[in-house]
Design a protein that fits this description.
Length: 251
């Protein structure tokens, strides 16, 4: 009870953070679609701006587990092509997020989540036929969209997924490159959210420390499950649940 009072959380909110931590660990080493469920649920429970401050340090912990597991499979060249454009997207998200109210912030998160879901559904339907242009404008668009989506709602996963899959990455290469990209991006976001949005405090860091075991448990389970689960059926379920959660943010 004292812990809840310290963080000023209701029991339901604290349980939701624990579940989110577990799903973040699971998504970072296993099925990335799980993260899309977490984002709108936390935004609904805590508000748009506050939820991004809560989730970012936990995401970084998850990133560390993922990088540790897949570090031998990183393709740096594909990351370098996007980083400048991603920083531009981060800047746009930072400015817009600073000057909109919380209701608008939640709606923006919902829009970004639904946009990313649409991209994910499109890539699912195209499958191996998915082809993207090897042009500067494509890297620019992908980087800016990814930067904006991750700054506003930590929702850039499907955008970067399409980029990697279109390059023909197999599972391990995909996981390694995806993990280091988001680790670098999320680390970059920390000072922006601390000093500009001011939604990460020492209490946020302490909260992350409390839920690290649940991130670790999720990460371990993700590595185990990804080898066995029927990913296609599971991804369809995640898409449906995420769409429902995101639509709730409009009301």
């Amino acid at each position: 009870m004292e812990l809840l009072n310290f963080f000023n959380f209701s029991p339901a909110q604290f349980i939701l953070v624990i579940i989110a931590a577990f799903l973040i660990g699971f998504s970072k080493t296993g099925l990335s679609g799980m993260l899309m469920v977490v984002i709108p649920l936390l935004a609904d429970a805590f508000g748009g701006m506050k939820s991004t401050g809560i989730i970012l340090p936990i995401l970084i912990v998850g990133d560390l587990f993922a990088v540790g597991n897949y570090r031998r499979h990183i393709h740096w060249a594909n990351i370098k092509k996007l980083m400048l454009w991603t920083l531009i997207g981060l800047g746009l998200g930072l400015i817009i997020g600073k000057y909109i109210n919380d209701s608008q912030f939640k709606i923006t998160i919902a829009i970004m989540v639904l946009l990313c879901l649409a991209i994910l559904v499109y890539s699912e339907r195209k499958g191996d036929q998915l082809k993207v242009p090897n042009k500067v404008w494509f890297y620019a668009l992908t980087g800016i969209l990814a930067g904006f989506a991750t700054m506003i709602g930590n929702a850039a996963g499907p955008i970067f997924t399409i980029y990697l899959l279109s390059m023909g990455f197999k599972k391990n290469e995909y996981m390694g490159t995806n993990s280091i990209f988001f680790f670098l991006v999320n680390i970059t976001k920390v000072p922006l959210q601390v000093f500009v949005w001011q939604n990460i405090t020492w209490k946020t860091v302490l909260l992350t420390g409390c839920v690290v075991p649940f991130v670790a448990l999720g990460a371990w389970l993700g590595v185990t499950v990804i080898k066995k689960i029927n990913e296609k059926i599971f991804r369809h379920l995640i898409i449906a649940l995420t769409a429902i959660s995101a639509i709730r943010l409009f009301f």
